[in-house]
Amino acid sequence: MSVLPLVFTSGWASGINAYAVVLLLGVFGATGVSDEVPAALQRTDVLVAAGVLFLCDTVCDKIPYVDSFWDAAHTVIRPVSGAVVGALLAGQSGSLSDLTAGAVGGTTALASHAVKAGTRMAINTSPEPFSNVITSAAEDLGVAALISFAMFYPKAAAIIAAVLLVLGLAILFFLARRIRRFLRRRAQRREEKRLARAGGGPSQAGGRRPSQAGGRGPSGRG
């Protein structure tokens, strides 16, 4: 069970930024900082892919509304990443079954992803973009700091991750009203666009008919 705290922490972090977790763990393993990191995460191709995707995540995660679309696209990716990383960590140490570690990592990643995505929906109800940038930067720094801390103090890091997860779920509960408002506004914008596309043709045609009729009227009277 010695690897369970690291599995839990990596799962929490994967729900926020899965690519940063893979990149950091791979770098720590490749540089010899930790022996807990499996060789699969230390491969050069894995590190390069994680680095490129991390840069994409860093940019998309700071743009209002784009961040919510990015979160929606990662609803499956982040929990799966947390489960895979957890299973790999368990297989490396041999102190915990791969299935159990995968379940812990995936479930924790799903919960933290829900907190992240829900919080962003609430933040997007604000018209200014600075809150998105500040929140995203704080999340990135938090993931980097906690994963680094977990390399040396895994149990303490797991306790911190658990506290952050509980606080995040509590905040998400209180922000539920703003999230519903965000979803209504987005549905309303989609409906307005759909009606505009559906009514564009007839309105244009209707706009031409009066002018044509008006053109024939005077000539007929004359």
Let me know the average pLDDT. Answer: 84
Assign an overall shape.
elongated
Strand content range? under 5%
Structural class of the secondary structure composition?
A: mainly alpha
H and E string:
HHHHHHHH
Unreliable runs, pLDDT <50, ≥5 residues?
A: 202-222
How many E-type strands? Answer: 0
Gyration radius from CA atoms, angstroms: 25 Å
Oligomer: single chain
Q: Helix amount, in percent?
A: over 70%
Describe the protein:
The protein has 222 residues and is mostly helical. It is 83% helix and 0% strand. It has eight helices and no strands. It has helices at 4-30, 44-60, 66-73, 77-93, 98-123, 130-152, 154-174, 176-221. Helix 1 crosses helix 5, helix 5 crosses helix 8 and helix 6 (130-152) runs antiparallel to helix 7 (154-174). The longest helix has 46 residues, at 176-221. The chain is elongated, with a radius of gyration of 25 Å. Residues 202-222 have low confidence and may be disordered.
Keywords:
0% strand; mainly alpha; 222 residues; disordered C terminus; 8 helices
Give the SSE layout.
Layout: H1 4-30, H2 44-60, H3 66-73, H4 77-93, H5 98-123, H6 130-152, H7 154-174, H8 176-221
Helix pairs in contact: 1-2, 1-4, 1-5, 1-6, 1-7, 3-5, 4-5, 5-7, 5-8, 6-7
The gist of it:
Helices cover 83% and strands 0% of the residues. It has 222 residues and is mainly alpha-helical.
